[in-house]
Amino acid sequence: MRDILIFCALTVTVVLIAIWSLSAGAVSIPWYVIGNTLFDIEGPKQEFIVFHSRLPRTLLALLTGGALALSGVTVQALLRNPLASPKIIGINSGAALAVCLLVLVLPSAGLKWLPVAALSGGLLAAALVTGSADFGRFSSGRLALIGIAVGFLCDAGVDFILATSADAQFSAPLIWLTGSLWARGWTHVQLVWPWLVILASFVLVLSFRVDLIQFGDSTATSLGVAVRPLRLILMGLAAALAAISVSVVGVLGFVGLMAPHMARSIIGGTHSRIMPCAVLIGMGLVTLADATGRAIAPPIEVSAGIVTALFGAPFFVFIMIQSGKRSQV
Amino acid sequence: MNARHRLPFQAGAISVLAFGVCILSVYGSLMTGGRSDIRLSDLFAASTNGAVILDIRLPRTLVAACLGVNLGLSGLILQALTRNPLSSPSILGINQGAALGLTIGVIFPSVGALVGLMPLAAIGALVAGFMTFSIAGVFTGRIVSLRLILGGVAVGAFASAMVRFSFTLEDDLARQVLRWTLGNISDVRWHHVQSLFVWSLGGTVATLAMAHRLNLMALGEAQASGLGADPRLTLMIGALMSACLTGTAVFVAGPIAFAGLVVPHMCRFCLGPDHRILVPATALGGACLLMAADAASKWLTSPVELPVGVVVAMIGAPYFLYQTLFSKGAI
Questions:
Q1: Which chain A residues are Cβ-neighbours of B293 within 8 angstroms?
Q2: In chain A, how many domains are there?
Q3: Is B33 domain-assigned?
Q4: Residue B154: closest C-alpha in chain A
Q5: Mutate which of A81, A160, A261 to disrupt the B interface (most B C-beta within 10 Å)?
Q6: Which residues constitute the domain of residue B101?
Q7: Which domain holds residue A178?
């Protein structure tokens, strides 16, 4: 009963945030106008802004927020560490390096190829990290360290490219990577939603297995789980979810870190409950960040990635210090 | 590092090698240049080259050396305090914290004028280090090494996100900050040298005075306090010193990553775990690394100069990856 109430409350919150996200911005639209426009009711309407700008943005924020949160839950469960996040397995840095390489090697390739480059770079980095951690003695700490090292290596490459080439050429791709939903439209939504939904459903189906893998490798093996294939599959799914979201909206820091925490403290228990809860929270967080970025100082937009970092980081530090006092992870 | 650690080389061979490397890197940093190379023979021919050497090359070489000293010592102190070989200013987020402090000073000129940019960088470094330490449980006496690294990465991610945010405020500012965040020392002059040199010298002396305490920290906190060195005091002084060293380095050159990681490792590999030897060795090694990197930064893509931080990162990042892949450590 309590679970149902929590899920209802979360869903209502997400819907409210989404409505606010439709209304906030350079032109603020009252809620009844939004209702009129969406459901085609008689009365004042704002079709152009709602349908062409804000609705696809809001949908994209919901999709990527959910994907990042789910990816975060999976990575944290696999590493058995609440400080892990999709960033740890090198996705963000790999995507940035791939984008810079694309601009360097093929300057004529337009902005439309950036998502492809970011996706392949992120997946490649994640595969490299998972592969080299899986090669030899696996431990979650080793995986995290290799991921950090690969991330630093990619960052060094990005710095090298930035330093050796003309500045202006790279400013557009870099702004595009800082985690903003500015100028994203229906094409992006259509591009990502089928993949995100399919991958997310796979992860949700496997959520029972995630609980088992959390007990530790030997316990999971004795319970009949083929740990190594399962870990590779889950890592691949988590990497793909995060890389797809990075490829369309850039780096939205701390969502994959915060949402699982909040889900765990709100609902707790098994992953079949935590995962849907985290997805809802992630949706709410990213949509809220995007709307806040638009509402702070219109017509200037603060990108959503900055907002999530600004509010996420203090929260994160607080949670970490609290949890550090209670138990050592 | 265990007590049975054997020195791989003889002391005499090491000192000859160190001296050679030192001379070579000084020579490389002084002589290579964007416009024209200056040979050793030109150095003593007092002609127009004198101005080039005195006003442009020499301050730059000195700044590189001081940066190496600061970052190397800072890394050494952090590794001793946390008893973790992977600690370094960049991995614990301290570099990025200093960068954030400095960026705040640049964005709000009134704050920058009131406090001064260098203290702001040191304060930023201190705050970031404090946050990482409290996440890792350093103050409660139980350090969890993976928590330390992950917490540092998160703190660093936050600070660099904020620095990147400043890019979006104003184009002029963005160019200034971006150029500086890459770790650039191509336009330093004598007044930079003065302030940095004081800190490097003071830092080396102070760290040397602390070396025995750092050795005791390596035994564990219980043993350290049993032998009469309060670990909390060591922790406080060490953290403060590390933050000051990093802050001054970042103030002059921007966040240079990995120098603080690589140099103490190399020295420990060659000389063993005694901090009374490691402190001067790390200072010397850091100076050599940065001067060599400075020479490489002028030579690699001449006539365009690379920021020295990029060169160090290109050396340090693969080393870090190698270290994590093949270390037989506790993690």
A1: none
A2: 1
A3: no
A4: A313
A5: A160
A6: 61-323
A7: 2-326
